[in-house]
Design goal:
Layout (H helix, E strand, L loop, with lengths): L1 H5 L3 H16 L4 H14 L6 H46 L13 E8 L7 E8 L3 E10 L2 H17 L7 H15 L5 E10 L4 E7 L4 E5 L4 E5 L17 E4 L5 E5 L1 H4 L11 H8 L7 H15 L8 E8 L1
Antiparallel strand pairs: 1-10, 2-3, 3-4, 4-5, 5-8, 6-7, 6-9, 9-10
Helix pairs in contact: 3-4, 4-5, 5-6, 8-9
Protein backbone atom coordinates (compact mmCIF):
# COMPACT_ATOMS: atom_id res chain seq x y z
CA UNK A 1 0.00 0.00 0.00
CA UNK A 2 2.81 2.40 0.91
CA UNK A 3 4.58 1.58 -2.35
CA UNK A 4 1.43 2.52 -4.21
CA UNK A 5 1.10 5.82 -2.31
CA UNK A 6 4.71 6.74 -3.14
CA UNK A 7 4.79 5.41 -6.68
CA UNK A 8 1.30 4.52 -7.98
CA UNK A 9 1.28 2.04 -10.84
CA UNK A 10 -0.35 -1.06 -12.33
CA UNK A 11 2.17 -3.37 -10.69
CA UNK A 12 1.19 -2.24 -7.19
CA UNK A 13 -2.54 -2.52 -8.02
CA UNK A 14 -2.03 -6.08 -9.26
CA UNK A 15 -0.17 -6.92 -6.05
CA UNK A 16 -3.11 -5.53 -4.09
CA UNK A 17 -5.53 -7.72 -6.03
CA UNK A 18 -3.47 -10.81 -5.29
CA UNK A 19 -3.32 -9.84 -1.60
CA UNK A 20 -7.10 -9.50 -1.48
CA UNK A 21 -7.51 -13.04 -2.90
CA UNK A 22 -5.13 -14.38 -0.29
CA UNK A 23 -6.99 -12.60 2.50
CA UNK A 24 -10.35 -13.97 1.28
CA UNK A 25 -8.95 -17.51 1.16
CA UNK A 26 -7.78 -17.09 4.75
CA UNK A 27 -11.20 -15.75 5.83
CA UNK A 28 -9.78 -12.42 7.02
CA UNK A 29 -12.79 -10.20 7.80
CA UNK A 30 -13.00 -6.81 6.00
CA UNK A 31 -12.94 -4.81 9.25
CA UNK A 32 -9.53 -6.31 10.06
CA UNK A 33 -8.24 -5.25 6.66
CA UNK A 34 -9.54 -1.72 7.22
CA UNK A 35 -8.02 -1.63 10.72
CA UNK A 36 -4.67 -2.76 9.27
CA UNK A 37 -4.86 -0.01 6.68
CA UNK A 38 -5.42 2.67 9.36
CA UNK A 39 -2.60 1.32 11.55
CA UNK A 40 -0.09 1.29 8.69
CA UNK A 41 -1.02 4.84 7.74
CA UNK A 42 -0.51 6.09 11.30
CA UNK A 43 2.71 4.14 11.86
CA UNK A 44 4.23 5.75 8.76
CA UNK A 45 3.50 9.29 9.82
CA UNK A 46 0.24 9.93 8.03
CA UNK A 47 -1.87 12.09 10.30
CA UNK A 48 -5.61 11.71 9.82
CA UNK A 49 -7.92 14.61 10.43
CA UNK A 50 -10.78 14.29 12.89
CA UNK A 51 -13.25 14.04 10.03
CA UNK A 52 -11.25 11.21 8.44
CA UNK A 53 -11.04 9.42 11.78
CA UNK A 54 -14.82 9.57 12.19
CA UNK A 55 -15.36 8.47 8.59
CA UNK A 56 -13.10 5.44 9.11
CA UNK A 57 -14.94 4.57 12.34
CA UNK A 58 -18.24 4.73 10.45
CA UNK A 59 -16.79 2.61 7.66
CA UNK A 60 -15.47 0.13 10.22
CA UNK A 61 -18.99 -0.43 11.57
CA UNK A 62 -20.25 -1.01 8.04
CA UNK A 63 -17.45 -3.50 7.38
CA UNK A 64 -18.29 -5.46 10.54
CA UNK A 65 -21.88 -5.96 9.37
CA UNK A 66 -20.72 -6.62 5.82
CA UNK A 67 -18.18 -9.17 7.00
CA UNK A 68 -20.74 -11.09 9.04
CA UNK A 69 -23.21 -11.11 6.14
CA UNK A 70 -20.48 -12.18 3.72
CA UNK A 71 -19.35 -15.06 5.91
CA UNK A 72 -22.95 -16.21 6.34
CA UNK A 73 -23.44 -16.07 2.58
CA UNK A 74 -20.29 -18.10 2.00
CA UNK A 75 -21.47 -20.65 4.51
CA UNK A 76 -24.85 -20.92 2.78
CA UNK A 77 -23.15 -21.31 -0.60
CA UNK A 78 -21.05 -24.14 0.76
CA UNK A 79 -24.09 -25.86 2.25
CA UNK A 80 -25.93 -25.39 -1.05
CA UNK A 81 -23.08 -27.06 -2.96
CA UNK A 82 -23.01 -29.93 -0.50
CA UNK A 83 -26.79 -30.36 -0.78
CA UNK A 84 -26.63 -30.25 -4.60
CA UNK A 85 -23.93 -32.90 -4.51
CA UNK A 86 -26.06 -35.11 -2.25
CA UNK A 87 -29.11 -34.59 -4.47
CA UNK A 88 -27.12 -35.50 -7.60
CA UNK A 89 -26.00 -38.72 -5.91
CA UNK A 90 -29.61 -39.44 -4.90
CA UNK A 91 -30.84 -38.74 -8.46
CA UNK A 92 -28.24 -41.11 -9.86
CA UNK A 93 -29.20 -43.79 -7.34
CA UNK A 94 -32.91 -43.31 -8.01
CA UNK A 95 -32.49 -43.78 -11.77
CA UNK A 96 -30.94 -47.17 -11.08
CA UNK A 97 -34.07 -48.26 -9.21
CA UNK A 98 -36.23 -48.17 -12.35
CA UNK A 99 -36.13 -51.04 -14.83
CA UNK A 100 -34.75 -49.64 -18.11
CA UNK A 101 -37.11 -51.93 -20.05
CA UNK A 102 -39.91 -54.39 -19.32
CA UNK A 103 -37.79 -57.26 -20.56
CA UNK A 104 -40.15 -60.07 -19.57
CA UNK A 105 -40.51 -63.58 -20.99
CA UNK A 106 -44.28 -63.50 -21.52
CA UNK A 107 -44.81 -63.54 -25.26
CA UNK A 108 -48.55 -62.99 -25.04
CA UNK A 109 -48.06 -59.62 -23.30
CA UNK A 110 -47.10 -56.27 -24.81
CA UNK A 111 -46.00 -53.73 -22.19
CA UNK A 112 -45.29 -50.02 -22.73
CA UNK A 113 -44.29 -47.45 -20.15
CA UNK A 114 -43.15 -43.89 -19.55
CA UNK A 115 -42.21 -42.01 -16.37
CA UNK A 116 -41.28 -38.33 -16.31
CA UNK A 117 -40.39 -36.43 -13.12
CA UNK A 118 -41.68 -32.90 -12.65
CA UNK A 119 -38.41 -31.94 -10.97
CA UNK A 120 -35.02 -33.53 -10.45
CA UNK A 121 -36.34 -36.36 -8.31
CA UNK A 122 -39.52 -38.30 -8.82
CA UNK A 123 -42.09 -39.56 -6.34
CA UNK A 124 -43.45 -42.06 -8.89
CA UNK A 125 -42.25 -45.62 -9.07
CA UNK A 126 -42.88 -48.51 -11.46
CA UNK A 127 -41.43 -51.99 -11.35
CA UNK A 128 -41.95 -55.57 -12.42
CA UNK A 129 -40.87 -58.93 -11.06
CA UNK A 130 -41.30 -62.61 -11.81
CA UNK A 131 -43.54 -64.37 -9.32
CA UNK A 132 -43.78 -68.02 -8.54
CA UNK A 133 -45.45 -70.36 -11.08
CA UNK A 134 -44.21 -68.18 -13.97
CA UNK A 135 -46.40 -65.19 -13.18
CA UNK A 136 -45.51 -61.55 -13.87
CA UNK A 137 -46.02 -58.82 -11.26
CA UNK A 138 -46.24 -55.19 -12.36
CA UNK A 139 -46.75 -52.22 -10.04
CA UNK A 140 -47.15 -48.47 -10.20
CA UNK A 141 -46.74 -46.42 -7.03
CA UNK A 142 -46.83 -42.79 -5.97
CA UNK A 143 -44.90 -41.75 -2.88
CA UNK A 144 -46.62 -38.84 -1.13
CA UNK A 145 -43.51 -36.79 -0.45
CA UNK A 146 -40.57 -35.71 -2.55
CA UNK A 147 -36.82 -35.48 -2.46
CA UNK A 148 -34.32 -37.75 -0.77
CA UNK A 149 -36.76 -39.29 1.80
CA UNK A 150 -39.03 -40.39 -1.06
CA UNK A 151 -36.05 -41.83 -2.94
CA UNK A 152 -35.03 -43.80 0.15
CA UNK A 153 -38.56 -45.15 0.53
CA UNK A 154 -38.58 -46.06 -3.15
CA UNK A 155 -35.29 -47.90 -2.72
CA UNK A 156 -36.73 -49.86 0.20
CA UNK A 157 -39.78 -50.90 -1.87
CA UNK A 158 -37.61 -51.89 -4.82
CA UNK A 159 -35.38 -54.16 -2.80
CA UNK A 160 -38.40 -55.59 -0.99
CA UNK A 161 -39.84 -56.51 -4.38
CA UNK A 162 -36.57 -58.19 -5.32
CA UNK A 163 -36.91 -60.44 -2.27
CA UNK A 164 -40.38 -61.46 -3.49
CA UNK A 165 -39.11 -62.82 -6.80
CA UNK A 166 -40.56 -66.31 -7.36
CA UNK A 167 -42.85 -65.73 -4.39
CA UNK A 168 -46.38 -67.12 -4.79
CA UNK A 169 -48.15 -64.53 -2.61
CA UNK A 170 -51.31 -63.03 -4.20
CA UNK A 171 -51.41 -59.32 -5.00
CA UNK A 172 -53.32 -58.30 -1.86
CA UNK A 173 -50.91 -60.17 0.42
CA UNK A 174 -47.96 -58.44 -1.26
CA UNK A 175 -49.58 -55.08 -0.46
CA UNK A 176 -50.08 -56.25 3.12
CA UNK A 177 -46.37 -57.10 3.33
CA UNK A 178 -45.29 -53.77 1.82
CA UNK A 179 -47.70 -51.86 4.09
CA UNK A 180 -46.04 -53.27 7.20
CA UNK A 181 -42.61 -52.59 5.73
CA UNK A 182 -43.39 -48.92 4.98
CA UNK A 183 -45.09 -48.44 8.35
CA UNK A 184 -42.09 -49.82 10.21
CA UNK A 185 -39.19 -48.34 8.25
CA UNK A 186 -40.23 -45.26 6.26
CA UNK A 187 -40.31 -41.66 7.43
CA UNK A 188 -43.67 -41.06 9.23
CA UNK A 189 -44.40 -38.16 6.88
CA UNK A 190 -44.32 -40.46 3.84
CA UNK A 191 -47.23 -42.44 2.49
CA UNK A 192 -47.41 -44.64 -0.58
CA UNK A 193 -50.26 -45.37 -2.96
CA UNK A 194 -49.81 -48.45 -5.13
CA UNK A 195 -51.62 -50.50 -7.75
CA UNK A 196 -50.31 -54.06 -7.99
CA UNK A 197 -51.08 -56.57 -10.73
CA UNK A 198 -50.10 -60.21 -11.31
CA UNK A 199 -50.55 -61.81 -14.74
CA UNK A 200 -50.88 -65.57 -15.15
CA UNK A 201 -50.07 -66.64 -18.74
CA UNK A 202 -51.60 -70.10 -18.25
CA UNK A 203 -55.08 -68.68 -17.61
CA UNK A 204 -54.66 -65.16 -19.14
CA UNK A 205 -56.03 -63.78 -15.87
CA UNK A 206 -54.82 -60.52 -14.35
CA UNK A 207 -55.31 -60.28 -10.58
CA UNK A 208 -54.98 -56.87 -9.00
CA UNK A 209 -55.09 -55.01 -5.71
CA UNK A 210 -54.92 -51.33 -4.85
CA UNK A 211 -53.57 -49.40 -1.87
CA UNK A 212 -55.44 -46.12 -2.23
CA UNK A 213 -54.16 -45.65 -5.78
CA UNK A 214 -55.97 -44.27 -8.82
CA UNK A 215 -58.17 -46.93 -10.45
CA UNK A 216 -56.59 -48.67 -13.42
CA UNK A 217 -58.22 -48.14 -16.81
CA UNK A 218 -59.40 -51.32 -18.55
CA UNK A 219 -60.25 -51.55 -22.25
CA UNK A 220 -62.29 -54.49 -23.55
CA UNK A 221 -61.37 -54.90 -27.23
CA UNK A 222 -64.48 -56.80 -28.41
CA UNK A 223 -66.98 -54.33 -26.98
CA UNK A 224 -64.64 -51.34 -27.38
CA UNK A 225 -65.63 -50.14 -23.92
CA UNK A 226 -63.68 -48.76 -20.98
CA UNK A 227 -64.06 -49.60 -17.29
CA UNK A 228 -62.31 -48.65 -14.08
CA UNK A 229 -60.56 -51.29 -11.99
CA UNK A 230 -60.39 -50.65 -8.27
CA UNK A 231 -60.32 -52.49 -4.96
CA UNK A 232 -60.71 -51.55 -1.32
CA UNK A 233 -57.50 -50.78 0.54
CA UNK A 234 -55.87 -47.89 2.39
CA UNK A 235 -52.60 -46.28 1.32
CA UNK A 236 -49.42 -47.95 2.55
CA UNK A 237 -47.85 -46.77 5.78
CA UNK A 238 -50.93 -45.75 7.78
CA UNK A 239 -52.52 -48.77 9.47
CA UNK A 240 -50.89 -52.16 10.07
CA UNK A 241 -54.30 -53.84 10.36
CA UNK A 242 -55.76 -52.75 7.03
CA UNK A 243 -57.01 -55.52 4.72
CA UNK A 244 -56.48 -55.31 0.97
CA UNK A 245 -59.04 -56.63 -1.49
CA UNK A 246 -58.05 -58.59 -4.59
CA UNK A 247 -59.99 -59.02 -7.83
CA UNK A 248 -59.39 -61.01 -11.01
CA UNK A 249 -59.86 -60.02 -14.65
CA UNK A 250 -59.64 -62.44 -17.60
CA UNK A 251 -57.85 -60.81 -20.55
CA UNK A 252 -58.68 -61.53 -24.17
CA UNK A 253 -56.68 -60.66 -27.26
CA UNK A 254 -56.52 -56.87 -27.67
CA UNK A 255 -57.62 -56.13 -24.10
CA UNK A 256 -55.38 -53.85 -22.11
CA UNK A 257 -55.01 -52.25 -18.69
CA UNK A 258 -53.45 -48.82 -18.08
CA UNK A 259 -51.81 -48.04 -14.75
CA UNK A 260 -50.96 -44.41 -14.02
CA UNK A 261 -50.27 -41.83 -11.32
CA UNK A 262 -52.43 -38.83 -10.42
CA UNK A 263 -50.12 -36.36 -12.14
CA UNK A 264 -51.28 -37.73 -15.50
CA UNK A 265 -54.99 -37.14 -14.91
CA UNK A 266 -54.80 -33.67 -13.34
CA UNK A 267 -56.16 -31.05 -15.70
CA UNK A 268 -54.66 -27.56 -15.72
CA UNK A 269 -56.90 -24.89 -14.19
CA UNK A 270 -59.74 -27.32 -13.51
CA UNK A 271 -61.57 -27.65 -10.19
CA UNK A 272 -63.27 -30.84 -11.31
CA UNK A 273 -62.34 -34.05 -9.45
CA UNK A 274 -59.51 -35.95 -11.07
CA UNK A 275 -60.52 -38.97 -13.14
CA UNK A 276 -59.00 -40.81 -16.07
CA UNK A 277 -61.13 -39.08 -18.70
CA UNK A 278 -58.02 -37.49 -20.17
CA UNK A 279 -56.62 -40.97 -20.86
CA UNK A 280 -59.91 -42.14 -22.37
CA UNK A 281 -59.89 -39.11 -24.67
CA UNK A 282 -56.31 -39.85 -25.68
CA UNK A 283 -57.09 -43.50 -26.42
CA UNK A 284 -60.11 -42.58 -28.56
CA UNK A 285 -57.73 -40.62 -30.81
CA UNK A 286 -54.99 -43.30 -30.78
CA UNK A 287 -54.31 -46.06 -33.28
CA UNK A 288 -54.79 -49.10 -31.05
CA UNK A 289 -53.14 -51.38 -33.60
CA UNK A 290 -49.78 -49.83 -32.75
CA UNK A 291 -47.38 -51.36 -30.19
CA UNK A 292 -48.14 -50.61 -26.55
CA UNK A 293 -45.13 -48.30 -26.25
CA UNK A 294 -46.40 -46.09 -29.10
CA UNK A 295 -49.84 -45.90 -27.50
CA UNK A 296 -48.28 -44.95 -24.15
CA UNK A 297 -46.27 -42.21 -25.83
CA UNK A 298 -49.47 -40.94 -27.47
CA UNK A 299 -51.31 -40.84 -24.12
CA UNK A 300 -48.43 -38.98 -22.50
CA UNK A 301 -48.18 -36.38 -25.27
CA UNK A 302 -51.94 -35.86 -25.20
CA UNK A 303 -51.91 -35.36 -21.41
CA UNK A 304 -49.07 -32.84 -21.33
CA UNK A 305 -50.51 -30.97 -24.31
CA UNK A 306 -53.70 -30.51 -22.31
CA UNK A 307 -51.53 -28.94 -19.58
CA UNK A 308 -49.69 -26.62 -22.00
CA UNK A 309 -46.58 -28.76 -21.45
CA UNK A 310 -46.25 -27.62 -17.83
CA UNK A 311 -45.53 -30.53 -15.50
CA UNK A 312 -46.60 -29.69 -11.95
CA UNK A 313 -46.40 -33.32 -10.89
CA UNK A 314 -44.66 -36.53 -11.92
CA UNK A 315 -46.22 -38.48 -14.81
CA UNK A 316 -46.12 -42.27 -15.03
CA UNK A 317 -48.09 -44.53 -17.40
CA UNK A 318 -47.78 -48.31 -17.80
CA UNK A 319 -49.87 -50.22 -20.35
CA UNK A 320 -50.33 -54.01 -20.18
CA UNK A 321 -51.93 -55.49 -23.32
CA UNK A 322 -52.87 -59.09 -24.16
CA UNK A 323 -51.63 -59.99 -27.62
Amino acid sequence: MLHYLRNPGEHQLYAGQQLSKSLIEKDIPPEDILGLHISIMKENGHVLSEEWERSFQFLMEIMVSFGMAYQERQSLRLKKKQLESEINVAISMQKKLYPPTFDHEFRDLDVGFISTPAREMSGDFYYYTNHGKNKLGILVADIVGKGIPAALCMSMIKYAMDTLENDIKPANMILDYLNRLVLKNADPSLFVTMFYTIYDPLTSVLTYSSAGHEPALYYHAKSKKFADLNTRGLILGVDANVKYEEKALPLETGDFVVLYTDGVTERKGSDAPDDNSILREALVTADLSLPAQDIVNHMYQYAIREKDYQLDDDHTIVMIRKK
